[in-house]
Amino acid sequence: MALSLITGGSGAGKTEYIYKKVIDWSMKEPQRQFFVIVPEQSTMQGQKDIVRLHPRRGTMNIDIVSFERLAYRIFGELSLPQPEILDDTGKTMVLRKLAGEQKDQLLLFSAHLNQTGFIDEIKSMLSEFYQYGVTPEALVESAFGHIRLLEKFDFTDICVSLKSSSVPVTMAAYRLMSEKSDYPLHLGVTETGTPRMGILKSAVGIGGLLALGIGDTMRVSLSADPVEEVYAARDILKAAGVRKDGPELVACPTCGRTRIDLIGLANEVEERLKSVDKPITVAVMGCAVNGPGEASAADVGIAGGVGEGLLFRKGEIVKKVPQEALVDELFALIEEL
Length: 337
Hints:
The chain is an alpha/beta fold. It contains twelve helices and ten strands. It has a five-stranded mixed beta sheet with strand order 6-7-8-9-10. The chain has a three-stranded parallel beta sheet with strand order 3-4-5, with no helix packed on it. Helix 4 packs across helix 5 and helix 6 packs across helix 7.
């Protein structure tokens, strides 16, 4: 019996073709035992399909097994010690005990812990994540499982969160959910870490979804002062074009024409803009040659020179200013807007 590869698209009938081939072999060689290995959750359906397709509506020499069940068959036949398994009832008992001990911390779930089937739903969700990994499809299916449970009790005041620590998984899950449900979505990338990478992950994940028109509420999660989360969230909303109030800073990169401490100026302006609420665009440019023209869309800005710089408004030069007075003059002009 040579190795064969059966290929084809979803719904092409590959599984049924394989079952029929195995049935044919089993009838030609009734003394041999045949194994069909399928995912754990498909063993029962596989057995039903074999019986349905078999001419005798039954077989004694075809076994439908998962890798796990096959391993235990081998353990048993070789008299190897078998590890203890916690069955579904045991898993439910453990989860119920943990939920009872942590009831005060489970603010969203505490009212449902004693409802029939609730712990079983949690167990099924955890088992699925453990077995298949956290995928966009698994997150969405888990969300719909909880939605169905809540709707069963006529509770529809629902906001769905599909956070993952993986930016691609998070974005794919929210995009999929937005196509299948009208419930509001709470955006976030979880466990992003310290501010440098945390803000970057959140900007890509949350900002990308907002730019696609997906999301209703959000939280930036950082291993930092919660105030930093608020600032980051505000900046992401502005960068995605969702938040229109408050200032936006634009600044050019350093280049060979830069004759001023551009980085220091940009940082100082950014810090002082935190106290400004006006919906304006402020530019900090490195040279007077191209700065005002490149930043002509900005409401106000400064462009550096040698020991001095230019103050400009909408690309038009207002005046020359000594370098040490550039920032103060810029904010005096902002006050006039």
